Amino acid sequence: MALSCLSNTGGSMRTLHKFHGGIHPPSNKAQSTRTGITQAPLPSRLIIPLQQHAGEAAKPVVKEGEHVLKGQLIGIPEGNISGAIHAPTSGMISAIDAQKIAHPSGLPDICVTLMPDGKDEWISRETTDYRNKTADQLRDQLRMSGVVGLGGAVFPSDIKLQCGTKKIRTLVLNGAECEPYITCDDMLMRERAEQILSGAELLRYILGAEEILIGIEDNKPEAISSMRQAAAGSCSRCEVIEIPTIYPGGGVKQLIYVLTGLELPSGKLPTEIGVQCFNVATAYTAWRAIAHGEPLLSRIVTVTGNVAKPQNFEVLIGTPVYELVSHAEALPDTNGYIMGGPMMGLRLLSDSVPLVKASNCIIAASERLFPPAPPALPCIRCTRCVEVCPVELQPQDLYWFAKSREFGKAQTFSLLDCIECGACSYVCPSHIPLVQYYRYAKSEIRARAHEKQNADKARERHEFREYRIEREKQEKAEKLAAKERAALAAKAAKVEEVTDTIITASSKPAEIDIGINMSHTDKTEAVTPKD
Ligand code: SF4
Ligand code: SF4
Fold first, then answer.
1. Whose CA is nearest to atom 7 of ligand 2?
2. By the 8 A CB rule, do 62 and 90 touch?
3. Phi and psi of 398, rounded to 5°?
4. What is the pLDDT, as a whole number, of residue 507?
5. What is the CB-side half-sphere exposure of residue 209 using CA atoms within 13 A?
6. 343 lines ligand 1 (CB under 6 A)
């Protein structure tokens, strides 16, 4: 469905599009936007996971006991899809070992522990004018600066900026920030709009995009105003577009559709429809990396919920959650923490886990704010979940398939297109934790695909071995046959030679006779005088 909306450029009208479904949960954003972004104090230690991005973990390039400077590379990207990791401050590496991290599995992962020396002493940094560099050089620099998507997916930005032969017409900047409680992008846009816009120009330069569309939900009037002001002064062919507030309007597919009317087909990337999308914080970080030579060392994190001073902090990557929340003063009845928003976030098993590049928000939970979910009841086929699903799936069918372990059917019903937004669970009158079922089914499908991949590889290896043995056999047989043929040929050549000699001999009888006679005569003549 299309609707008209006023965009910024000269008051012209831009047609916006409405995606299917969506919900309006209480936003709970006002609490954390009353004060500006605060720099969080240097923590007592930093725990820096080497896997903070999609793809391969970084490989450590420092040793225990080594002194490092702020911004120094401590983990080098491994493989094509990976990200670099840097020391967020100067200090001493005290350990490289498995530590608790924020992950649904609850399993630890390899982290570098850094004890700050309090000096916050930088490595030398280079400022760069991106217009003097090629797109390849800039992508390399972003890779080595550890720039990844800060909207949640943490996909390495250098990979998203590689579009091959695909022509990118539109660069979409995602400032929607649709999930309740989270306000880090809102505050970043209010306070650092010019640098976000400079980052947008940089990304456009690398992509060769024609236009920049910046989508911001209409519940952030200060951010919209600040971004429009910055865009008017510095960004050409760039529109800051106010979009209706609806969850999950910040989903990539949903935002692209709202702004352009283009639908992203299942399993396809935005680049296949001539669009690429980055979060506003990613654009800001890319700008800091290129223009100021600063790798990704910190990010803005909203600390809210059951705390006395909800606000946004600029926090060093690796800061333990308990240290950060202490600055916002968690209330005594806090019964846990959520990393991310209440819809898609992760309930932490421990508050000693570190903040990572993906951590946009920490919500202190309490029974009052998040009462325990009532027991799940049977599905009554009310189809409320169908009405709100932004991907137009059949959540109740997916639930049945996941519950009965019919994963093939779940896949046929496009389970893998589910963005796990939780809108279906939110409206379900039977309180069924639908998203948990989908996550479980997806992990089973991935595990089976992985097993199949391994089995296919083993089969290929076996088939190749059989083929090699057969080929070696054939080669041996061919060599033997060739040897035999050569021997026969040699034999035949010898017979032919002998035959030729005989034939030659028999074709000259007179000469032979003469020869014999002559020799006989010679002999006679020679003997005769002596006699
Ligand atoms: S979690 Fe998945 S199935 Fe449920 S509403 Fe969101 S996209 Fe649809
Ligand atoms: S909203 Fe809940 S009860 Fe209603 S159809 Fe969906 S899963 Fe069933």
1. 396
2. no
3. -60, -35
4. 58
5. 30
6. no
Beta bridge partners of 111: 49, 97
Distance from residue 422's CA to the centre of ligand 2 (Å): 13
Tell me if 81 sits within 8 A of 156, measured CB to CB.
yes
| Backbone dihedral angles phi then psi of residue 380, each to the nearest 5 degrees | -105, 10
- Ligand 2 binding pocket mutation candidate from 23, 377, 383, 400 (most atoms within 8 A of CB): 383
- Percent helix / strand / coil, the chain, rounded to 5: 40, 20, 40
Asked whether 113 and 46 are in contact (CB, 8 A), the reply is yes
Over residues 13-47, the pLDDT tens digits come to: 789 999 999 999 999 999 999 999 999 999 999 99
Pocket lining: 435 vs ligand 1, CB cutoff 6 Å: yes
Q: How confident is the model at residue 163 (pLDDT cuts 50, 70, 90)?
A: confident
Nearest CA to ligand 1 atom 6: 421
Task: Classify 282 as helix, strand or coil.
Answer: helix
Go through the chain and tell me how many residues it has: 531
Which amino acid belongs to residue 207? L
pTM value > 0.90: no
SS3 84: coil
CA distance 470 to 337: 62
> Amino acid letter at 338?
I
CB-CB contact of 20 with 122 (8 Å): no
What token pair was written down for 215? 């989508």
